[in-house]
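This entry is listed as follows:

___
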Amino acid sequence: MYTILWLIAVVMVIAGIYVLIARRELLFGIILIVLGLLIGPGGVSIFS
């Protein structure tokens, strides 16, 4: 479960950075990055 959450978090952060840079949608990119950091191993997991 830990590995799956970590992978989801990485994908969300990368997608957030892509949205910020390539598509220039600031709010949606920031939301994706914050959610990725909350789910990730260094953050507070919303699933536990």
In short: The chain has a mean pLDDT of 80.
